[in-house]
Structures are given as C-alpha cells and as structure tokens.
Amino acid sequence: MPTAMERKLGEMLVKDSIITQEDLEGALEKQEESGISLGHILVELGLASEWEMAAALGKQLNVPFITLAHYEIDRQVLESIPESIVRKYKIVPVDKTGDTLTIALSDPSNIYLLDELRLLTKCQIIPVISFESDIAEAISRYYSREEDNFEEMLKDITDQEMEIIKEEDEIEEEDDADLAVEVNDAPVIQLVNLIISEAIKAKASDIHVEPYEKSLRLRYRIDGVLQEMTSPPKKFQNAIISRIKILSELDIAERRLPQDGRFKVRIQNRPIDFRVSVCPTAFGEKVVMRILDQSILSLGLSDLGFEPDALKKFEEQIRQPWGMMLVTGPTGSGKSTTLYSALTTINDPRKNIITVEDPIEYQIKGINQVQAKPEIGLTFAEGLRSFLRQDPDIIMVGEVRDLETAEIAVKAALTGHLVLSTLHTNDAPSSINRLTNMGVEPFLVTASINMVVAQRLVRRICENCKEVYKLSADLMTALKIQDSKEIKIYKGIGCDRCRMTGYKGRIALYEVMVVSDRMRDLIIEGISSTNMKKVAIEEGMETLRQSGTKKVLEGLTTPEEVLASTVAD
C-alpha cells in the first residue's frame, strides 16, 4: 500500500510533467501487487529516470543530492555501519563528525530505516540522496573483493545473449595445453563475453585490456573518451588475453611480437565485427579491440551533422560522374563513417563500386572491397592500378599516403571515374597544398579535385540532464556569439544515462569546400592555404568553428567541446 509521502511524490512528478496521471495510477497499482517502492517502479518502467526521482525526492524532503563517485570515503566512516546492514538496505555512510553520521540512500523518506540506523549507531543521522546505481557501485567499490564483484557481474550474462560467429572451424589443439584448458573454462568464456557485451551496451568504440604489475585495467572508449570500468581480477589476465586471441585466430603461444586479428559476434541478432590488436608490454600483452557495428551504415547523410547548405553541396558532389572528393581530418574524426555513408547513398546496381582499404572496417553489400596488404605488394597504389582494369565507375581509396597513390588517384579522376579518399590535414584548404607538396602538379590538382571536406567529432549533450546555463564572456567572445537574452546555451549536468559525464553520443562538425573556377586559377598561381581559406569563406564555406558555434546555439554540444576541437577563424 503506498504511503501518503509516496502519493505526494507521485503528484509532484505529475505536476512537473515528468509522468502523467495515467502513469502514476498504473505504477501505484503495480506497487500494491509487488510491495516495491513507487520510485523504484517508476524507474523500472522507464517512466522517470533516477535523476528525476532524486531531484523530486530532494525537493519534497529538502534533502541534498550527492554523487558518491566524486567522494573518497574514509575507511573508519565505512566501518561505522556493519557491511550486512549496508548491503541489506542499500545505503552508504559518507561522513562522520562527532556523533553526527551522514548516510547516502536512494529513498530518504524511509523514516523507519533512519530510526533503526539512529539506534544502531547511537548517532544523529543526516540523510542525503544518491542514485541507486551510484550506491550499488560504491558498495562494490568499498566492500567487495574484485573476485566477488565479477562473480556477481557474470550472472548478468548468459551464453545465449552473445554468440561467436565462426567463419572457420575453431582450432581445438593448442601448443600450450594447460592454458588452452584454462581458456576454455566456462568462467573465462563468460568473463570475456561480459567485457564485450557491456562495451556494446555502453556504445563504446574500443575496449582496452591493459596489464600492470599488480592489476589488470579495463577501459572503454565512449564518445571518444576513455573511461575506466570495473577491473577483472589480475589472476585472470593470461586466460582473458588468450581467450581473445583464440577468438581472433591468433597464436596464443606467441607473446613477444604484436599480432592483429578480427572476429565477429552476434548480440540480439545484430552482427558486430571486432578488430583486435595485441601488443607485448612490460607486464604482459595489452589488447585493444575496435568495435565495428554494422548498424552505423544505416546512418543517412542527414544524421551525421551536416548543415543544410553543406549537405546540399556534399550530395551534389558525390553524384558527379567523375572527379575526386577528399575527406580530411585527424585519426578518429569520423572520416570513414562519412565515406561509408556516402558510398551507401550512391550505391546502385548500375554502377561498379570498388574500394581498397587498410583495414576493411565495414562490409557493404553490392560493393567490391579489397584489403590492402603491403607485405605482399598489394599497396593502395597497386590496388588502384588493378582497379582501373576492372571497369569501375566509383573508386574509394582508404587514404592518400604518398605521391604514387596520389598520382594514380588523380589520373583515375581525370579519366572518367569518381574517386573518394581521405587525407590528414587540419582543414579543407590545407589539403590542396598537401597534394602539391607531395609532388602532384598544380594543374592536375585543379583538374581533378571537385570538393574537400574537413571534419571533427564533438560530444552531444545528454538530452536527459540538459539544462540552460549562463555562458562566460570569454567563451562568448571565442565563439563570436552576440550577448542576447534570447540565446540559450545548454550543458549536461550529469545523470545515470550518460555515466555522469553530461554527454551521450557524438556529432560531426563539417567544413565543405567546393573547388570553384576562381580557386582553380589561384591554385595554379600557387596561393597559400591561408589565402585559400579566405577565398573559400568569401564563396560561402562555413568553417569548422562556425559549424561548431551553430551546434552550440542549437543545443547539440557545448562551447568547451567546440573550442577543444577547432581553431579560431
């Protein structure tokens, strides 16, 4: 039966438009059946987030909210309450001053619990609110041995949730028989499955397994930033790494040389590729797994982050019958995603599309993709030469790395083919000078290049904890934003959905430069990249900083993200 306080909490959530009256009545009915707290049911049903529940409770009871992850709790404070009580009631002692004890709990309206704690500790109890997930993480961190923690986590995944897709029969015999037996033990298999599945759930792009002298560190790269996760026990180090090597069809007996491999898994009927790199370090082999989710190919060009005018120019150029289009930016800026989305957009049974890549990140139906293998002589340049005898309409080259590749790509663009490729430069205008510095003649550059696109990735503001804030004068000046009461700048304050970062997902900033007749004349004359940029802006090019400023004003990202990723115009 719901208490008067719970009913009042529900009414407050309805009043704040977090839930509807219908939602509240349904949750109250479920509470009568289960006896679970109203707040827990609302979160479980997805009707309200932990953050919204904590904010509403805090407002109702006038109790402050804290994030336990931001605190380092003293061992003596932790010992003020028995571990059995901490686990039973899901509470964490945070501070003790004299006979006053501060306790973090998810539901401070439970006066019976507060009274029991008062009698048990003989202290005055001051409650503070924290997320249930935050409390659970703190209990794991302060009270659990890492082995116990992982045993609990292993219960969350079953073999049915993740299936290894084998392209060939798995090798059954290994040189190191003892290790092979250990690697094929169910706990090790479950542990590796857990690491992989949790990374996919977190939408990570990379998994890092790093050995140190007395520990094994696990980190996921989420939205471009490495985040430390619960570490597996050190004793499982060799078994985990060997299990990953077996999945990737690598030599588990070779621990002195770097190795590269790949494997594929199916989670919830979704195939996901993994590219694996193993590198020997001082305390064992470090493994990095790049997660290549095929669902990224379903992204339309309009979902990537192009401004409307830039998108129109981009789509016009990728549909040209011949010429070259370059996408430029540093490693990890999303160049491959942009090119794959472009190829998916123009993929047509009437066209012969061939790519040469190193490595092939995503496999696209209807496109002939070739893996470059420099060790046997199949370089980008050799692949391009071969392609020209394969009657192609569109060619994609993974990267223009040298003069030979650049010259063949330019010649292909001049002989009636559309060529797409990437380059490493800071902005779009600099790409022209990079090609001429490689040794490509300026007249060939002007005749072949249709468009250059520069891009960067910035983190999106989490929609769940997004709020308006006042931007400092310095940031407004840096972004050239005029001070106005109508302008609203947003940031994420951190919640359970974004792992308290304030960001969830990423979006690209684009700088699209179409090479005009005027630019072609200036390239022949040897114009500098600085002056080229001025001309491009005069002709309507929006710079990376301008693209970022627009996304700040649209409430998609923060000024700090844009300033960290772009340079002043």
Can you describe this structure?
This protein is α/β, with parallel strands linked by helices and 569 residues long. It is globular. A hairpin with a 2-residue loop joins strand 1 (91-97) and strand 2 (100-105). The strands form 4 sheets. A 7-stranded antiparallel beta sheet has the order 4-8-9-10-5-6-7, with helices on one face. A 7-stranded mixed beta sheet has the order 13-12-14-15-11-16-19, with helices on both faces.
Biggest sheet statistics: 7 strands, antiparallel
Q: What order do the strands of the largest sheet run in, or round the barrel if closed?
A: 4-8-9-10-5-6-7
- Average pLDDT number: 84
Helix content: 25-40%
Distance between the termini: 63 Å
Given as residue ranges, the uncertain stretches (5+ residues, pLDDT < 50) are 168-182
Coarse shape = globular
Compute the number of helices: 23
Beta strands, count = 19
Strand content: 15-25%
Provide the gyration radius in Å: 28 Å
The secondary-structure class comes to alpha/beta
